[in-house]
Amino acid sequence: MNKKTFKPNLKILIFYVFFSIVFIALGFWQIERGISKTELLQQFETRSKAEASAINDEPKKWDRVKLSGEFFDSFNIYIDNVILKGIPGYKVLTPAKVEGINEPILVDRGWVQRETSREVLPDVSISKMDFEVAGILVSPELGLVLGDEIITKTKPYLSQSSNIEAIEKGLEIEFYDFIFLADPLMIDSLEYIEIIPTNILPSKHYGYASQWFTMFLVLTFMFILTSFKNEE
Fold this sequence. Notes:
The protein is α+β, with helices and mostly antiparallel strands. It has helices at residues 10-48, 164-171, 202-227; strands at residues 4-6, 64-71, 77-84, 87-98, 105-113, 130-138, 157-159, 179-182, 228-230. It is built from three helices and nine strands; from the N terminus they run E-H-E-E-E-E-E-E-H-E-H-E. The protein is elongated and about 90 Å long.
């Protein structure tokens, strides 16, 4: 009866060690992402569901605040390629001067469907300039943009992103640090789009972590299986 001994091949050993480190590292990274997303969802739930309060000197993302002010009648910013229920359209940002803030703030009035021709932008004119409404402070990421021109240089302004820094850079205007997503209660409100704080839930990240750890276990099993050899 042949006796088996553990004699791993050097190349196989190096392969095993390298990919074991990779799989384990990726697994723990996904766990960290899951924990981070859990904290993010908790922050969103706490801040966005709170009673609306006056804006303060240290606002945070997703704070629920109540603003009163007046819209500028000078321009709107159309955020291009916003899909709602499979229909292409625009988010509309309108600048306003509000009490308690030195800089103008961009108010997200909601979504409007695109016209048949892209050359014609939908009418989003304002009938009542002054407003008092509650809403949530948001800070959109830059997202995917094509080309260097994120926002057009002439009116009506059409932007690829609702990121504040990108809009400020394109228009050379300083706005408040957050966009105000207004509740759909104003006379000139458009269709409201609910905030999705993250596209990937924590459970998804934990599932990915489980897959990486499973791959490590399979690799370990294969390494052990191929490393035992018959003694001559």
